[in-house]
Amino acid sequence: MEFCEPNITFFIVWNHGINYCFATTVTSSLLFAVAFFFGGAQIYFYRKYSNFIDKRIQPESYLFYLQILLTIGMALESIVHLILWGTVISMRTIYGYQVLGTVFYCVAYGISLLLLLVERRRTLPTVPTRGHGLVLLVFWTLAFVKVNLSFLNWFSDQWWFQKKRGTTDTVELILFIVRYVFVALLFALGLKAPGLPNKHSWHHLISNTLEDTEQPADANTNTNTDQQQQQQEQQQGERSTWADVWKKTRTVLPYVYPRRSIGLQLRVLACFVIIAAVRGLNVLVPIYSKLIGECGGRRLLVSRVQRAAHSGEQVKYYGAEKYEVKRYRDAILAYQSAEFVSQASLNLLNMVQSIVINAGLLAGTLYCASLIVNARTLTVGDYVLFSSYILQLYVPLNWFGTYY
């Protein structure tokens, strides 16, 4: 059994799109590693140190059962995908990376399902959390990033977005839509954590336990009980960070985009336009660098040699060998001179820039230290503030040499 399809090399990552063999192997291995090693360690600590959660505070939520079904569905989708590879898709041949990816996906989602059930039924002897553990959140985030990376191959013929391979691309596109919907729902439900007890449930359990074990003896005890009930009513509104996100956004929005000041509104719009332009330049700069690499000075230098080689008979016929040799030598010397000037100026710029940055940072640091120790007009927090601002100011300067 071959590991990748014929005429496809595993180590060639990009060829008008991400290599599907490479992408499947790396992403499945990464999800498996996170689930197996970190998830296994979390399960071990939970089984050794955790206690069972009282069933009275376990919420009965349909969203939790939807999480379970989606996790099982992702494992089944990988198995169905493997079966379709061998019966319907493409050349009806199963390769090694497909088997490896299916096994890793099934094991990874199986461990994530076990973690989901363990976090619902057990708790560590610490402050109760307000959501799922770090392992599950990282696992779902990586899975969501993995399906979104597929859009980088929108124009690639090796993937299914262009539907140039008929039934194969249609089946692959349907499976991709199923994967995307399942993973997106798992990611969203993971942030909400519908199957875990919330903070109000824990306070309610603690208050009931105290009422069962303590008997009020006088009016003061009754007053304390009333105060606890008022505190519980106040804490009832404390939910997840993502709760009432639209309400919070509407509260903050007037400070970000003022309604009554046209000048401030224009400044906000200008900031958004600049941010969008910077992000667009971040996309265009690598493309521009690619074009420079394909049509750079070295290619122009080689083109003269190629023209001379292709017209070698004409050069010999007209006795222009010495003339062409002289032109080639002059082109090499001119290129070497320009390259030397470019490298020397770049090194000089980087050296002067490093001297300016380090000297400024040293002088500012010594001055702040003097004001803290001698004049006592600044505090240690002011020194940290100065260091943070000056480093943020110097970070863009590090790119000047590169762009130059």
UniProtKB/TrEMBL annotation:
Keywords: Cell membrane, Membrane, Translocase, Transmembrane, Transmembrane helix, Transport
Thylakoid keyword on record: no
Keyword Translocase: yes
Main location per the UniProt record: membrane
Pfam families: ABC_membrane, MTABC_N
Ranges of residues in domain ABC transmembrane type-1: 301-404
Compartment(s) where it occurs, according to its Swiss-Prot or TrEMBL record: Cell membrane
Signal peptide extent: none
Superkingdom assignment: Eukaryota
Topology in membrane: Multi-pass membrane protein
Residue ranges of the region described as Disordered: 215-241
Membrane-spanning parts: 17-41, 62-88, 94-118, 134-153, 173-191, 268-288, 355-373, 380-401
Coiled-coil boundaries: none
Protein name: ATP-binding cassette sub-family B member 6, mitochondrial-like
Gene name for this UniProt entry: LOC106806721
